[in-house]
Amino acid sequence: MLQTPDDPNGLAQDLIDKAEALVPVLAGRVEEAEALRRVPDSSIDDLRRSGFFRAALPARYGGYELGLDHVIEAVSRLGRGCGSTAWVFGIFCDHMMTMGMMPRQTQDEIWGEDPDTLVSSGLAPAGRTERAPGGVKLTGRWQFSSGCDHAAWVFVQSFIPPDDEGGAATPGYFLVPRDSFEIIDTWHVAGLKGTGSKDIVIDGAFVPDHRIQALELFNTGTGPGGQVNEGAIYRLPRIATIPFSLVAPAIGILDAMIEAFIERVGGRETRGFRHAELTTMQLRIAESTAERDCARLLLRRATGDTMASMMRDGGLDLEQRARNRRDMAYVATLCMRAADRLFQAVGAAGLFDGNDMRRHHADIRAIGVHYINSWDISGPIYGQVALGIEPTNPLV
Predict the structure, then answer these.
(1) Across all residues in the chain, what is the average pLDDT?
(2) In Å, what is the CA distance from 393 to each residue of 2, 172, 217, 241, 272?
(3) Residue 166: which domain range?
(4) Are residues 17 and 130 in the same domain?
(5) For residue 396, what pLDDT is reported?
(6) Same domain (yes/no): 243, 375
């Protein structure tokens, strides 16, 4: 293994090498993933055997506790093989970091017997809660639970009822096991078809207090798990750092799209005229690859600077959190621009199901419409902070 100062055991480099080796394997299962509308079991098994689900797992359970920068690099590399698989892997890494902020008892319930246990989520605020002895009863429905078919637990966002009558409810995360939620198959979509991002229904499940935590603790990186897990990734301010996993697959997908475009243009002729000789095609490749390279450099800088600040200062200031939100959205914007430019030159062949260019374009567009990657939301946040105005969206 290649050893570097920020990867002394060579674990990150080993994982990245394994990601590259898996690219052709995952690419060979893309059509299966789309037909199943979830990641195939064989792909989950490959990720598990290769140690991918140890990337962001606390070391106490045999995990690698890799830095955010290394985790995101692995997510991006997998995207070149299958965008849906990379997305689900990134989601599971996000959730390992998040659950690593939960109390020790909660972590032991998740990973104590099986360190490869996976956790899905429902993060749009929903549902209703009522106090019960030792916890809360939870009922509701949550959308977009990526990878839920492979998960033994799910955490959802709802509202923690006040202790006193007349008090205010506070946003929080509620963790429940597989026998306490139902999966509703709603995932019929145009892009990221293989992520299985279905609905979760919970009907009156009891959630004990140790499986409930205020949202603020995660967004400030001050969850109790940070006291038992040494890795800085368990003290990250969640909303401004961990969601880099939601944009990273787009870069790998764009890599694959560029490769497919070059192969297509290089071998295509119309009435004896080679498309490769068209200046317009040459410019499309030049500009799209430049945008891809800029997106990759921006992502690496953002995640690298985040880890450096966490190791040096133990946290991120407001400007850096705002910049991270900006960078997440701008990486997505660059990838969408590049994908749009290439897809516009594909021709009618790109309209057919099974066409790689159609799939890549739809997957990148699906990533771009996620709210965390929306330039309309994240761009103004940075502008407000830069101009000394209180941000209208939370950055803590």
Answers:
(1) 95
(2) 41, 17, 17, 15, 56
(3) 119-217
(4) no
(5) 53
(6) yes
